[in-house]
Specification:
Blueprint: E1 3-7, E2 14-18, E3 41-42, H1 45-54, E4 59-64, H2 69-82, E5 90-95, H3 100-105, E6 113-118, E7 121-127, H4 132-140
Parallel strand pairs: 3-5, 4-5
Antiparallel strand pairs: 1-2, 4-6, 6-7
Helix pairs in contact: 2-4
């Protein structure tokens, strides 16, 4: 049987799950958090590295800032698109005002910028605000 490793957004434990096309339930073995929860998670430098390096699913990171109008406009679309990918992709956000070193590390020149990471490396990026359908289509290419 094939397995996937999923980082719990709540406690950062790595969970080993049987690989399936669809999951009816999946809970963290340590804290009981629902791993099917699709709400985008806020990342800091520590949790960023854990999620990027330890998840077997793609991690879609939105680099944004509170003062950015297009970022604020895209936030609901990002959350809506995430609902299409339970345990297929993890959606996350990095506040570039709080963590400018993360933005600098990945050469973020304009926001919003979304990057898809797989197996610890960047596989694609897009800058500018997208709607939910555009985000879903873009992420769907990498599932």
């Amino acid at each position: 049987m094939a397995y996937i490793y999923i980082v719990c957004p709540n406690c950062l434990s790595v969970n080993k799950l049987p690989k399936k096309d669809h999951y009816n339930k999946a809970k963290c073995g340590k804290c009981g958090f629902n791993l099917l929860d699709t709400h985008p998670i806020e990342l800091d430098p520590n949790s960023f590295d854990i999620h990027i390096k330890r998840n077997d699913i793609p991690v879609v990171v939105d680099f944004w800032a509170p003062w950015c109008g297009p970022c604020q406009m895209m936030a609901p679309a990002f959350e809506e698109a995430a609902k299409n990918f339970p345990l297929k992709a993890r959606f996350a956000k990095v506040n570039t005002e709080q963590f400018p070193q993360l933005a600098a590390t990945y050469g973020i020149r304009g926001i919003p910028t979304m990057i898809i990471f797989k197996d610890g490396v960047e596989i694609d990026r897009v800058s500018g605000a997208l709607n939910s359908a555009q985000i879903t289509q873009w992420v769907g290419q990498y599932i």
